Amino acid sequence: MDGLPREVGVLAVVAFVVALGFGIVAPAIPLFARSFGVGTTAVGLAVSAFAFFRFVSAFGGGSLVERLGERVVLATGLAVVAVTTGLAGLATSFPVFLWLRAAGGVGSAMFTVAALALLLRVAPAASRGRAAATYQGGFILGGIAGPAAGGLLTEVSPRLPFFLYAVALLVAGVVALVLLRPSATERAAAPAGVPGDPASGPVPLRSALRSRAYVAALVTNLGVGWVLFGVRNSLVPIYVTEELGRSAAWAGAGLLAGSAAQALALLRSGRLADTWGRRPSLLLGTATGTAALALLALPPATGVFLLSMATYGLAAALLASVPAALVGDVSPVRGGRVVAVFQMSADLGAVAGPLVAGWLTDVASYQVAFAASTAVVAAGLVAALALPRR
Q: What is the C-alpha separation between 377 and 101, in angstroms, rounded?
């Protein structure tokens, strides 16, 4: 890991397992829900319940991190998701399945907030960007590999992916408990009197919100959730088939181009954040992302679409590491609620983005919807311009 703390590599592996399993189970969720004889609205509810409860419980997860510590909350969150996922595969009625998915969202919030809080605490300021990029790389690689395997497993049985994901999460939880124990060096290294360390307590959320760096991280992360986890997955496939007149395979090619570009540029983006500086790196990422989304507001063309997806993938590599590094700079030790609100900003974008963009498409056009998404990403650019130069 080239000088990074041991915990960074462990967290990256855990992130890969979590994302791989989530990708495996994702194709099975709508099919399994449909097997209960419910309509498409109920199927959509089964998909969104996880994300909604993950969003509303994240702040509580941050409070638990500050009280119990990252490692305990991380392992507990993984155990909650594992148990609820396994039981969901055994569900015999839709209401039971729905509530188990909702409970899984609570566990996911606990894991995500605790893992990022631990990562930002153990990573030195000079390598915080690389640490965040390495961690995000685990998610990206798992997210790429999971859906393909999930589709094949779902053909065998729609219940099978749930069981495999549950086992994988339990293994990840055991690995986290064993390998993420605090070392003697780490226990002795925490200086007293630094805001946010155990001696003086976590950085208050109100204090963090007065920091332009933290506000810039929140605004940028909102745009990442809006586009990367929301609009890109909901609106782009329909845009390709209805507006461009291409097959779904072209939509897959565009998404793959974006993911590949992001994966290839991720480690380099972390080094830029650490060596070039947070402000110029964030400016480059938000400016590139704004330009990429603006391409989709132009008259439809397949080549422009593919260029937009690849370019946004490059931007997403920077936007996956720099905002997280900024949060670590603001709250260097056990920033549970500070990290939770940061995560909630992306989740809010992931929930609101598809709804707003879908409504704008219905009442206006795809171009108007993409223009609105461009404005959300551009808000991150404005926030980056407001950052101090040092």
A: 30
